[in-house]
Design goal:
The complex is a heterotrimer of chains A (about 250), B (about 290) and C (about 950).
Chain A (H helix, E strand, L loop, with lengths): L11 E6 L8 H12 L7 E2 L7 E2 L4 E7 L7 E7 L8 H4 L6 E3 L6 E3 L9 H5 L5 E3 L6 E3 L4 H4 L12 H5 L5 E5 L6 H9 L15 E3 L22 H14 L6
Parallel strand pairs in A: 1-11
Antiparallel strand pairs in A: 1-10, 2-3, 4-5, 6-7, 8-9
Chain B lengths: L4 H21 L7 H23 L19 H26 L4 H23 L11 H17 L3 H29 L3 H5 L5 E3 L9 H6 L5 H24 L3 H25 L13
Chain C lengths: L16 E6 L8 E7 L2 E7 L12 H4 L1 H5 L9 E3 L8 E3 L2 H18 L4 E5 L5 H11 L4 E2 L7 H11 L7 E3 L6 E5 L7 H13 L3 E5 L5 H5 L2 E3 L6 H14 L5 H7 L5 E2 L20 E4 L4 E4 L12 E4 L2 E5 H9 L6 H8 L3 H17 L3 E7 L5 E6 L3 E5 L1 H4 L4 H14 L9 E3 L64 H10 L7 E5 L11 H9 L11 E6 L11 E4 L8 E3 L11 E7 L12 H11 L17 H7 L13 E3 L2 E3 L9 H7 L3 E5 L12 H10 L15 H10 L9 H10 L11 H4 L7 E6 L15 H4 L5 E3 L1 H6 L7 E5 L4 E8 L7 E5 L16 H4 L37 E7 L22 E2 L4
Helix pairs in contact in C: 3-17, 4-17, 5-14, 8-11, 8-12, 8-14, 11-12, 21-22
Classes of the chains: A alpha+beta (about 250), B mainly alpha (about 290), C alpha/beta (about 950).
Amino acid sequence: MTELPARTERKLGLVIDLDTCVGCHACVVACKGWNTQAYGAPLSDQDPYGADPSGTFLNRVHSYEITPADGAPQLVHFPKSCLHCEEAPCVTVCPTGASYKRSEDGIVLVNEDACIGCGLCAWACPYGAREMDQAEGVMKKCTLCVDRIYNENLAPEDREPACVRTCPAGARHFGDLGDPESDVSKLVAERGGIDLMPEQGTKPVNKYLPPRPRDRLEAAPPAALEPVADAPGGFLGWLDRALDRLPGGQD
Amino acid sequence: MHPAPSLIAFTTLSGAGFGLLFFLGLGIPGVTGWTAFAFFAIAYALAGGGLLSSTLHLGHPERASLAFTQWRTSWLSREAWAAVATLVVMGIYGAGLVFFEARIVPLGWIGAAGALGTVFTTSMIYAQMRTVPRWHTALTPALFLAFALVGGALLAGEARLASFLMLGLAGLQIAWLITGDRRFGEGGTDMGTATGLGGAVRAFEPPHTGPNYLLREMVFVVGRRHAGRLRVIAVLLMALLPASVLLLPLGHAGAGVAVLSHLAGAAVSRWLFFAEAEHVVGLYYGAR
Amino acid sequence: MTHRQPPLDLSPPVSDEVRKTTCYMCACRCGIDVHMKEGRVAYIEGNRDHPVNRGVLCAKGSAGIMQHNAPSRLRAPLRRVGPRGSGEFEEITWEEALETAAGWMKPLRETAPEKLAFFTGRDQSQSLTSFWAQQFGTPNYAAHGGFCSVNMAAAGIYTMGGAFWEFGQPDWAHTKLFMIFGVAEDHDSNPIKMGIGEIKARGARVIGVNPIRTGYNAVADDWVGITPGTDGLFILALVHELLRAGRIDLDYLARWTNAPVLVNGDAASPEHGLFLRDDEGRPLVIDRRTGKPAAFDAPGVRPDLAGTWRKAGVTHRTVMHLIAERYLDPAHAPEAVAGRCGVPAERIRAIAAELARVAFEESFEVAQEWTDFRGETHETVTARPVSFHAMRGISAHSNGFQTARALHLLQILLGTVERPGGFRFKPPYPKPPEAHPRPHARCAPEAPLAGPHLGFPLGPEDLCLDEAGDPARIDKAFTWENPLSAHGMMHMVISNAHAGDPYRIDTLFLYMANMAWNSSMNTRGVVEMLTDTDEAGDYVIPRIIYSDAYASEMVAYADLVLPDTTYLERHDCISLLDRPISEADAAADAIRWPVVTPDRDVCGFQSVLLDLGARLGLPGFVTDDGAPKYADYADYIVNHERRPGVGPLAGWRTGKHGPSHGRGAPNAAQLENYIANGGFFLAEVPEGARYMKPWNRAYQDWAVSMGFYDAPQPYLFQLYAEPLRRFQLAAEGHGERQPPEHLRERIKATLDPLPAWYPPFSDGHADPEEYPVHALTQRPMAMYHSWGSQNAWLRQIHGVNPLYMHPDLMRRHGLEEGDWARLASPHGEITVPVAAMAALNPNTVWTWNAIGKRKGAWALDREAPEATRGFLLNHLIHELLPERGDGLRWSNSDPVTGQAAWFDLRVRIEKSKPPEEALPVFDALASPVPAPPAELKWKI
């Protein structure tokens, strides 16, 4: 199982729009809620009301500050979960076969019944996408809501990951990144979607759309406003003439 | 990386244990009977005890047998096979020595190769981790093997060989440490590639103000001065001190001191091996 | 290859049942699908059909399950047994609790109803709570708007008949430029996120004006890191630029606003500055066809913006004249304001040019035939695809009312309001102040108030003063200090009650308002007032009754605690009579219903209030024979009628010929109808009525048919606000009701009928040299007020709140990341951890709001980070301004509305040695609930 499939029929994944993500953490908690009652063991929380609360989350939103040499500093919100890599190092290190990549759609999963909780897969992942549940002793990770996306008990429009369904800003997109004609592939092409840590050789399926350039109004300003008058008296003269030119005016 | 005591104990002790098995497999020292039993008991206690302690950090040790299934891709699985195979082969070989005073030479050689192979698989669990640039080098297996050989030689009572090997080990350790300091930068993974946001990027708010598994497990921060001191202590204890002691005519007492000193130095080295190793995931938390 | 996969069930059952109700994790009121398993709440997601959130849900909403299961939930009514503030209680029965409350209140009603002060916090049932207080007969009722956003709401109503959020929204479908002022996560959160996502997807520009670049401002294409309190100055510079270039919508101004209305120019007249009116009281304009005065709404009239009228030797000019004169003044030029605003003049000019470009050059026509109130029919509506949104950042200042007015002036000059691509009202808005009630405060024993407490004064005659001219209300709302305090002034209740100014009260009755912690300025002072005793050893505020679902800080200060249910255990109605959830194209209301029954001895507060009303025999709460009129809140929601045919819910009423919406008799099955429809009701605005609502006959007729009001009431946007001028006239000495001398000059200066800017008051009291840095709070998107910290999932996201500072400011004070700083204001001092942030106005520090908690509250461990490192800025803010030697203590609030000016805060910063905990430290409260669990694994 820990051998990666030679190829997958589809490459399901997420496209995350860093231009639009407002950093609200909606996806974080929707994920926590769904996966606490769905696939495998619940996502537990230790010391939940105490001095050091710490729980398992499969999706977390970072934030970064960019200080360009020219222009105002910027803040970027950065959701991160499993990228369902084509060359998933977390899968091949697994000694038990618990970690695997599905040949149908490329989703990387953990079969919790076979997981010994050695933690190697989390070490192998450069993205921090895997977290060991402290109550259950098994590795948890994003399942791309594999129990939603094909689930016939859900309405067809709800067959998408919980994080995508809940994202208020529409900053998360789900689809087949192996199909160049899919909406997500077109979005990636159009907006110059990128891989995270490409040098790690993981070939992530999930893509990130970089923020559009910011604070360009002065660099490319609209045509300057031409004064019609500099004093109130002149303005009223202009006003009178302008009113005449309105439909129904005197002209 | 979090310097988990179970992993430090495991890699240090089992390394020395398999090192001893290596020498025993080669017939060094050429012991039989109860003397052989004593040597084998020490080797099995270290190797097997180390293996057992490694299961302490598992979430589900009762499923450990599944770890034999994925030898095609997983170094941990290969380690499991190598360790068990070596222990079985050396068990038969040892039984011959202890109970029949018979040395089955080819079996010893196979066992010796297996012992080094086991240490190699262990080292590859770390060396394969591209995510931990300090580990991701051929020097890592070399270092692990050197530790095993030194530990084995010490335990085997090969004082001169051990002293000689210790100098090599010290050199390897220093090389590993110094080149390791550069390796994260050379790996090319930085906050720019991690986030795709270019160079002038800094972590602002963490995703959660509370701690999490990733930070506990993979983002361990050790002070530079503290680490520097420990590096010196490690090299002194693991090599220079025991080598010096062995040059003195102190007999068994000297050998005992040398073994303890070496193991203590090895443990410090192994602590640093984990504590100084930075995982690239730390970049997402601005921890670098 | 040997790749193998385990079998996997791809269609596991999701839940046993989905129950659709309304979220209450913040004030947004999204629709939620509550997935039930084995009769318990398993998972919550957004309701796709719901008008507010269309399926999405924020972090708070998704974490509702943890709120519902929070260990901080109260378990039974509590009677205080220890001293106030100790947190020592005994659990009692509901019968004892209600008899106690009724026993305290009944004598008050019989002798002096004003001695009951009833104030509610994050209440979404103000239609009921205000009605109850009105029937009780106390003038002392309000909700929390006074410290929330009354500046915004009142400025909107007085200017154009509605403000942002619940009153209206950007036309997301058409807007091409969206500009936000002072918007963090305050309100309307999911709709704003959805809108921003929608317009950014098509490449529309977003401009964010905020000292802090987080959240929406982080995704803004352009960020204006303005100096706090100067938004009005900035906006009026944009107005200056647009006027100077003649880039204003003259046709729109002439037809739909009071820009062409003639203003009495006779300086000697007692009506100087008021509108010239005809005999029927209709404001006059010059009809451009005739050059003669005519009523503004005369059929076919063409109001002349440039008109003047000379009569009896006096020239009367139009509002447009006054606007030109005021804002073309070089004092409003970009160069003149750039330094104070912290925004370069070129930037102001570029933004003005972009606003004009998009409004006028990217305009288009939308086909919608409509007839205006003057009888003219139009084929299309012209788009002005520039939209604005603003919230607390501009309203929580002492110049917030006028700043919000300035923003509306900008919107209207560009012709964007009720136009495609601009700002659109949500039914039942727009409603001008005239269509709202006046405030009522005259009380008498055993009698209801003559009308609602809160309303919109049109002049000094509407103030709530007694015969002696003293404040009639305990919070001094609707007095000369703050005449248009349309939401009351909850933040003044405790300090006034403690001071006995204007009078003493007996019982303070609070609901969902954490006044002993984050909902008060001057927290320690408030705590001391709540526990202060007189010479006889009795509490100065004799009795406190509090209702809350959770063990908040305020619980510890109550004598009697009435435990509320969680939002999943209760009935509620999100009523068009109250705070609506409509969309621009539809009126909507909604319900909550008990998707689970409480597992403890708690009761929805509204049902408790109905019971109390019956025990007290309040009119409207008992039948003619004195029996309780309503069994519970559900019964009230269905059967109460405010006016004949108009009740709390508009959907599925009973008409003459079957079901009817809007108006109709009560329908016993109404709640079932709502539940079957997903918990809400939606009535679409008819096609031809969707834009230009204030002037659109089709809209006005539809609004009447829906019961929003009883007759069409078209009106003009009030660029010049006459009610404000009436207060100025009084300050100038006209009229019978006269302000006290010390307020005359301030009223003249601040109740300006044209939008004006003046520096925040604190600048004149706290020495800007000594306290040079602005300090703000923002609400994080994943946390709502104090509620979040009891939520096991949300508190992991925001468990501590550093003070964010610009790196330059840190350097100047020798501070590094992780250091601690002492922050001092004229009122107090806190010592807190600091962190760097460059995307911030360089002279502003800020932190997340309401993360800090008191030890012992909310069922958290006493060592919880919220209690050891989390902190509040509230300790630095006082409800009064510092003394300045004139013998008076001026209120730290807006002089028009009384809104608490907590964003006016200025501080001094110095490095501090790290204390063991953030300072100040308060004693721990005893917890009224059991210890929380050590681990959570919530799988059903």
